[in-house]
Amino acid sequence: MSLHLNKRAILKNTAHVGGLTLLSRILGIIREGLLVRFFGIGAISDAFIMSFRIPNFFRHVFAEGALSASFVPVFVKTVKENKREEASGLMSISFLFFEGIVLLMCLFVFLKTELVIKFIAPGFSPEQIGYAIPFLQVLFPFLLLVSSIALFSGALQSVNQFFIPAFGTPLWNMIYILTLVICLSYNLSPLALCFGIIFGAFIQLLMLLFFYFKNHFSFGKIDAISIAAFKSVLSKFLPGLLGVSIVELNLLVSGIVASFLPKGSISLLYYGSRFMNIPLGMFAVALSSILLPHFSRVVLFAPKRLNFYILEVTKLVTWVIIPATLFLMFVSENLFKTLLGTKADALQIKQAKWILILYLLGLIFLCLNKILLSVFYALKDTWSTSIAAIICASVNLGCDIVGMYYWGAYGIAAANTISGITMTALCFLFLHTRHEFRFYAGNYFKFLGRYCAQLFLGCALFLVAFLFLLNYLASGAWHNFFMFGIGYWIIVTLLGLSLMGLMFVTKRLFSVELYFLNK
After folding, report:
1. CA dihedral 258, 188, 133, 359 (to 10 degrees)
2. CB count, 10 Å around CB of 227?
């Protein structure tokens, strides 16, 4: 099996993973809608969201973040040298070490649950703390499962098996949704939902284990060679705990600050960040997952080639994410009217809309950060990302406090955007100063000018078509269906897809050159 990926393979795998991520995000929207109906927006929803945010934070930082980013390059190098036994030994020692740490964390959280809740939500009332304690005790072992999932996913990605790891999240979402439907139908306790979440992760882990063994991996003998490889993983993991997951760190810090706001504010910030994460996860996370093992190979054979790849990835992210950002801004109010329904009043819907818009202003930078962090980890440089993360976390905290004081939840959403922009600037700075990276700014801004002209035409046609169709179809008996019902979403979805299709077919007309989309 060839382990090399050309641009077609990169794009193809990104499309596959992105497609599954899109499916997961669609299921996620359904899930969030059911969550609103199950919890409402208030003290209990805030308690559930903060309780689940803790294992999810460690999942992104510890498991899918620093663990994957440090483990995959070393595993790729071992597999590339046709040393499956050594790779299996590396898996054994990594599994025992990291799962041992997570077990200790689970024990601490179980024994000191109230202390943990008070730390991550210092503004919670006694009522909210009472809700949160049993939630956290059931949900925190989720981290034990997803950290194992991260290891096995990394092993499969090292041999270019991306589909199965990507399918795991939609599978988990399906089980999550099924549990929510059962809880709503039979009026079950929220704890039943928590157990359903754990069960879904367990099924996902079993699936990955099956394909791990099917690809001729195993739990090998731990010897001096595997220990040396593990030391290499550990040397990248420890300083990378902060750098690789700055978005999640900022969201956790923002949640801590938001716990002092009126009840329901945490829920509104959560739902705003979830929709911002749709294009982030569907495109940027998928692309960075594909590119991490590819960048790791490029570093081994042609490190200067990274300059070209970073330019082209930056162009691709710009070309894809700006239309997605504008689209989500355009539909933001109707999005929350549909999601929150009667569980929220008009003021809360307006708040959620502007929170999402403020998050979206930083979306392109958050997407670029995902790619740039993959570059750093391929270069085995975790110190740069850690320094950048510490600076950005400090910026985020300061902006959170000032923003909350003057603008409430809006200030917290804006702080996340400011931090994301800061992270992008620092990543480019460190690539230039520490790795002699050269960004071809002239090429990028030439592309950007042509792209803006293309985008202006596409958006103008989108608005004209939208207003025409809405005025034509929303008259008479069909008014409510096309103005407030599913008909509205049919129109905007078809027009949004048509806009992306138009952008693709008019690339040559505007001389917009994209390496990954060229034949």
Report:
1. -20
2. 12
Q: Among 84-88, 319-323, 365-369, 406-410, which stretch is predicted with the lowest mean pLDDT?
A: 84-88
CA distance 87 to 425: 36
Amino acid at 392: C
Question: How far apart are the two ends of the chain, measured CA to CA in Å?
Answer: 24
Tens-place pLDDT, residues 214-226: 988 888 888 888 8
Q: Rounded to an integer, what distance in angstroms lies between the CA atom of residue 344 and that of residue 366?
A: 29
Q: How far apart are CA 402 and CA 373, in angstroms?
A: 28
Which two three-digit tokens encode residue 390?
């510490």
* Angstrom distance (rounded) from CA 13 to CA 502: 23
The kind and range of the H/E element at 40 are none
CB neighbour class for 370 (10 Å; exposed up to 12, middle 13-18, buried from 19): buried
Q: Let me know how long the chain is.
A: 519
The dihedral sign for the CA sequence 256, 262, 264, 269: negative
Look up the pTM and report it: 0.76
Distance CA 188, CA 184 (A): 7
Residue with tokens 């592309």: 447
Look at the block and give the residue holding tokens 């103005």: 483
